[in-house]
Specification:
heterodimer; A: 316 residues; alpha+beta; 6-stranded antiparallel β-sheet; 5-stranded mixed beta barrel; 5 helices; B: 127 residues; Thiol Ester Dehydrase, Chain A; 5 strands; elongated; ChsH2_C (chain A); FAS1-like_DH_region (chain A); DNA-binding protein (chain A); HotDog_dom_sf (chain A); Acyl dehydratase (chain B)
Chain lengths: 316, 127
């Protein structure tokens, strides 16, 4: 997906189509309500309420959802519709999940021995939201939970499926670096120019045709003879794509306009001389890059060894 | 009891053990609640408490205060700043409404980085 609003609208419409469809059908609690699970819960929570022990014990009402959890087992009750919805979000890079809201109503207490069944519906899917964690979509489900066939509670649950905005670098892992260029006899002159902060375009000395990227011969006349012209550095965005997923922290960590490891814009820049170069558009948020945007060459030092020609927006 | 009454705060040390024990007791095996390395890969600095544990702690806060005869009717919570190991969450509550034997309490759980949880709990207190 790129930063164009109409693309988001189309994707949102696909997600919205799942509203009202079942998320879980006739789910069955893996265990009936039971004293050991109640005790484990109370131990974890530090809850010493006597209502949860003894012959007349009830389960802590806030355990409602716990009785529906699959744990490490399969979830046969999960519908194809819900799997598809989550799959769409995963595939589009929104593969991280966090629960944000839980609303529970308790209609009758659950007691050891109660058999749990539940049905769940996809209540709503939000539009695209940008949060501190990253950009994503809120998915809300509502579950009716029955105990021995009788409605015992309802549970509305909201999750955020998001593309993480930043992935902190592991402290003991080496910092991710940009890939190294492959330098050979045919392009060494180009990289030597870059090292001097010059963007060199090849020029055929047979017919005068400019060419980029560097090649051994001229596509126009076949001549193997060439010299170079230094690019003026002026250009425009001829086309671009936004790279969302998978994240490549090395491509964004040094650009303050990009969230580290977040999306970044790859531009096809048409130079004033007429040739095109693939590079990054830096210093401008990835979703603000546009076709026709005037840009100017600059050289960035990415690490001890690597300098690259990149392009900045020209503000007028 | 009247609207505006404040409940005494409850301080909960957020230990790694509490986060993992709460996740397992609620049968939530999402890796971000027990595996620090996988949590980091998903953009979090460490493991964090799952929503079911927060829900359980909010319920406990209310029933600890109102006693074993109090019956929870509704718990609605929203999560904000995550509960990471080493932090402390302080739960505070303010009575929002008293309607016969039904009391609605506004609950906030604040940790070192912000409000972990905000929500309301409705509890029935038999006369």
């Amino acid at each position: 997906m790129n930063g164009e609003p109409e693309v988001h609208e189309e994707f949102e419409a696909r997600l919205k189509a799942y509203e009202g469809r079942p998320a879980a059908a006739t789910g069955v609690g893996r265990d009936p309500v039971n004293e050991p699970m109640i005790r484990h819960w109370c131990e974890a929570m530090g809850d010493t309420n006597p209502a949860y022990t003894g012959p007349d014990a009830i389960a802590p009402p806030t355990m409602l959802q716990a009785w529906t959890m699959a744990g490490l087992s399969r979830r046969p009750e999960r519908t194809a519709a819900y799997d598809e919805l989550l799959g769409l979000l995963d595939e589009s890079g929104h593969d991280a999940v966090v629960a944000t809201d839980c609303e529970q109503e308790y209609l009758r207490p659950l007691r050891p021995g109660d058999d749990i069944t539940f049905d769940s519906v996809i209540e709503s899917v939000s539009g695209r939201k940008t949060t501190k964690l990253g950009t994503g979509y809120f998915v809300t489900t509502r579950t009716d939970i029955k105990a021995s066939g009788e409605l015992a509670g309802t549970h509305r649950f909201r999750i955020l499926k998001y593309a993480p905005a930043r992935r902190p670098k592991a402290s003991n892992a080496p910092k991710e670096r940009r890939p190294r260029p492959v330098v050979n006899r045919d392009n060494a002159g180009f990289w030597e120019g870059v090292a001097r902060h010059e963007l060199l375009i090849q020029r055929c000395t047979g017919c005068g045709t400019l060419r980029f990227p560097w090649l051994p011969g001229c596509n126009g006349c076949g001549s193997l003879e060439w010299d170079t012209v230094e690019a003026s550095g002026e250009g425009t965005v001829y086309s671009y794509v936004v790279m969302h997923h998978p994240p490549f922290p090395a491509f964004t960590a040094s650009d303050h306009a990009a969230a580290a490891a977040g999306p970044f814009a790859v531009g096809l820049i048409e130079l004033a001389e007429g040739v095109r170069i693939i590079s990054n558009v830096v210093g401008v948020p990835y979703d603000k890059v546009r076709v026709g945007m005037p840009v100017r060459l600059c050289f960035r030092q990415y690490d001890d060894e690597l300098v690259l020609p990149v392009f900045q927006e020209v503000t007028r | 009891m009247n609207a505006g009454d404040r409940l005494p705060p409850l301080e909960i040390p957020i230990t790694r053990t509490l986060i993992v024990a709460g996740a397992i007791a609620s049968r939530d095996y999402q890796d971000v609640h027990h595996d620090p390395e996988l949590a980091r890969q998903k953009g979090s600095p460490d493991i964090f408490m799952n929503i079911l544990t927060t829900n359980g702690l909010v319920g406990r806060y209310i029933t600890d205060h109102f006693g074993p005869r109090a019956v929870l009717r509704r718990v609605a919570i929203r999560l904000g700043a995550p509960n990471h190991p080493g932090d402390t969450m302080v739960l505070t509550g303010t009575v929002e409404q008293v309607d016969g034997d039904l009391v609605t309490v506004r609950v906030v759980g604040a940790n070192g980085i912000g409000k972990h949880v905000t929500g309301t709990v409705t509890v029935r207190i038999p006369a």
